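Input record, target 12 of the design panel.
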């Protein structure tokens, strides 16, 4: 399970005295633990992937802000954390692959602009953790036009 792999890598980083890696992995592991306590259930790989995606999204936002301020230290920290967490996500889909999936869904069901919600509902589970969710809506709108 992904959760165990993250914990194992955190312990290995502690032994190697790699504080930067420990801090990033500890943050993710604490989010996983918080989920398990709040939901009173074991975190599945899907949940762990969503937590990692959320962390990467927050890191990217922080990175953009740091770039505006020219804060080299924060830029380096954010880039390091993103590069550390990205390999834990499933293989990413290209825009072309997602566009083809959207076109297939539309063709199979004869969807129109009015069916935007149905298309989104159908495509989102297929790309979960494999593609930036914020890019999907504009892609669907573009295809339907």
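The sequence produced for target 12 reads:
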């Amino acid at each position: 399970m992904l959760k165990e792999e993250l914990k194992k890598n955190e312990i290995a980083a502690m032994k190697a005295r790699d504080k930067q890696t420990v801090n990033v992995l500890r943050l993710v592991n604490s989010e996983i633990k918080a989920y398990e306590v709040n939901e009173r259930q074991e975190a599945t790989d899907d949940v762990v992937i969503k937590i990692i995606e959320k962390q990467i999204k927050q890191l990217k936002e922080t990175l953009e802000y740091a770039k505006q301020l020219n804060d080299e230290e924060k830029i380096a920290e954010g880039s390091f954390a993103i590069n550390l967490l990205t390999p834990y996500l499933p293989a990413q889909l290209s825009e072309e692959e997602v566009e083809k999936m959207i076109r297939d869904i539309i063709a199979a069901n004869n969807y129109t602009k009015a069916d935007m919600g149905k298309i989104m509902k159908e495509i989102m589970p297929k790309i979960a953790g494999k593609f930036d969710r914020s890019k999907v809506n504009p892609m669907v709108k573009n295809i339907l036009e």
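The longest helix spans residues 45-69.
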